[in-house]
Please model this.
Amino acid sequence: MAKRSSRTDVRRSLLPALWHGGLHALVQRVRDGLVSVLPPELVREKKRAVSARYRPRAPQPSAAGAADALSVEAVDALVAQLMASSSWQARAAAALSLGQVHSDGVVQALVRALRDPSVEVAVAAAEALTHHEDVQAEGELLAVIDNRDGYFSPVTRVAAISALSRRLPLPHFGPVFAALRDIDAEVSIAAVAVIAERMQSSSGTYLLPLLRDQSGYFLPIVRLAAANALEHAGVLHSAIAQELLHLEHDPAVRRVLERAQYLTDQPLAGE
Model:
């Protein structure tokens, strides 16, 4: 079996989000494509600054008051920038801008950019593909998650999960469920986050098995993400928390379970 990712940068990046911001902070990181090793340039606020710096000037509104729209020439310039610029910032900015341009040629360019040697550009391409209701776009994002050739980094795959989770209906969530058992901890945690966000109180069907598993397959940080998600979803009532405490040895996960058990044992005001 392939060795699971347990890099210390995963812990440094995700544990503060889990402990101090709760599930919402983790989901926000996933949505922004910022799990693990992404550089700060791709924080959403800085995406806008980078995009504004490198985006070709859009045409001005016509005298008739028509809304701004990129000309064919401007779109071609963005595609060329995405494909050929030596600057990853320029390529990433072009990808983000092309998320608002709907054409087959643009989708094909963004699909190719998923394999850009810069992970920042690949993440920007995945984010842009979120805005394209296209069968090819969906299929390529699924291929990134599946990662059969081992090419895609965990960060790019997290971005693909985030993108797909916003467009797939729950009956088609199979790839996200499968990602719970991924060999990369970042990908598993991303799956935990989006399952909890989309399924809420029903998420226990898929997340409780991570805490009940005794094989040692799931890393403590993945179980910690699942425990936090289940607590926020209201699934960890006293009896379940007590059951899991008999199985769990990791101190951080146990603290979440003990907190959930204590809080759900407290009587409601007025009782």
